[in-house]
Amino acid sequence: MNQISINNSYPKKIRARCLAVLGTGSDVGKSIVVTALCRMFANRGVKVAPFKAQNMSNNSGITPEGLEMGRAQIVQAEASKIPPHVDMNPVLLKPTGETGSQIVLLGTAVENSTAFEYHTRKKSLFENTCKSLDRLRDNYELIIIEGAGSCAEVNLMPNDIVNFRMAEYADAPVILVGDIHRGGIFAQLVGTLECIEERRRKQIAGFIINRFRGDLRLFEDGKKWIENRTGKQVLGVLPWYNHIVIDAEDSVVIEAPGHVDFNNDSLPAVAVIRLPHISNFTDFDPLSRIKNIRLNYIQTPCDLSAFKAVIIPGSKNTRHDLKWLEDTGWSDKILAYADMGGHLLGICGGYQMLGSFVHDPYGLEGAPGTSKGLLLLPLETTLKAPKITTLTKFSWDGICGTGYEIHMGQTINESNGYMFEITDRNNILCQDFDGCISQNNKIMGTYMHGIFDSPLIVKKWLESIGIENPMISNLTGFAAKDKEYDLLAEHFEKYIDVDAVLKIAEGKHL
């Protein structure tokens, strides 16, 4: 299909068609399905773009304009072969605790809000998201809309701005995604239909069943039962895969890390401490793809002596996670590791934790106050607005790399031991420094996310912690990601009724 039929219901302006991908619950695979659809249509020459009205995630990234948006929509834009833009994710909620989040509107942090306070702002936020969708529809041929969580949360539906209400605004047919791996797929699909109004049921054009394990032929009877029971087509059943690596949106993929067993593995290991408010954990995806090292996320305090390096990652609530390190006994383990000469790397919030104090005089992450750091680097940090969001170019001892910065911390480095020289922020040349390195070169910290996307930087860091000749793929950076998007599209097209999906996108499903 080379063209998407145009929706002629707008007499003054031709706007792109829309296709919505909603889910029976959280983490059922909506983001992956949207990513696959974006690459599938892009490969067919369609000008396609992703859209998610509201995203809740601490895994974010930076657009070419230096604005912040959800990582999933950046991935989907890359799969669409277009630059990411904040209109693709106009509202981003970054949780700072159990009931509060920072609101990022059109790429800029505007306020911290409780869940109840946010609920009262839904009307104006919906208007903003509709304007963003309209702008996308004016510039593309097809918009793939992603929903959030379950589309059948009956208590939330009257004020929904991301699922059926958005699909209705866009006049978009809906593909409903369920996850068979978690069990109860029949109840997921049929139960969702039972919980929504008849007019919403009519919007659903078909189902995609995700994460199937085993022989697909054994599910044929199940597929027929679903179709007979609902009168809607099962568009495909996607088998579980291990050969494709796509940046994940939610930290659910690293929840409940297991025990580390060194007895059956001789590979050098790197640990990432799984903080309660971990952010931008995709920083470490490139390390997980290196064949001759092992990357472990660890949550329970343990002896760290067997690890070549320990990383304290970014955090959306640095002071809370510092207290968690102290309360759980992690602080003692980290300090003991440092005393024995272990290699530590702190990124963003983790960098702040390595210093002497973190001050939050304005209560940006909770109650105003000051927290004592780990005292491993001569730093002192104050949290204050405005939020720094930049695409950044840097060098480390002459080796060039690229990354991005997202932080409200302003850190004073009381030494001359900087980690990176900054050469460019948001395409503006500059001369600046970032991070800190201890005198023995064993403890390092930086605000820079994405440093491991630069293969020469990865190689230098691994060699600095004593790992020689790391097996880094020749295909790195965006080229590596681009290959994964094509693999995902191939996997998708192998198991999905592509013709049916194309007809749904053209509005021919009714």
Q: Please, what is the CATH homologous superfamily of the largest domain?
A: P-loop containing nucleotide triphosphate hydrolases
* Number of self-contained structural domains: 2
Briefly note the CATH topology name of the largest domain: Rossmann fold
Which architecture of the largest domain per CATH? 3-Layer(aba) Sandwich
Main CATH class of the largest domain: Alpha Beta
In terms of structural class, how would the helical and strand content be classed?
alpha/beta
Oligomer, anyone?
single chain
> How many runs of DSSP E, i.e. beta strands?
26
Largest sheet: 6 strands, parallel
Termini separation: 19 Å
Q: Quickly count the helices.
A: 15
Rg computed from alpha carbons, rounded to a whole number of angstroms: 23 Å
Cα shape: globular
Protein architecture, described:
The chain has 510 residues and is α/β, with parallel strands linked by helices. It folds into two domains: 17-245 and 483-505, P-loop containing nucleotide triphosphate hydrolases (Rossmann fold, 3-Layer(aba) Sandwich); 269-466, Rossmann fold (3-Layer(aba) Sandwich), CATH 3.40.50. Helices cover 29% and strands 29% of the residues. It is built from 15 helices and 26 strands. Strands 2-9-1-10-11-12 form a six-stranded parallel β-sheet, sandwiched between helices. A six-stranded mixed β-sheet has the order 15-13-16-18-26-25. A hairpin with a 4-residue loop joins strand 6 (91-95) and strand 7. The radius of gyration is 23 Å and the shape is globular. The two termini are 19 Å apart. Mean pLDDT is 90; it is low at 1-12.
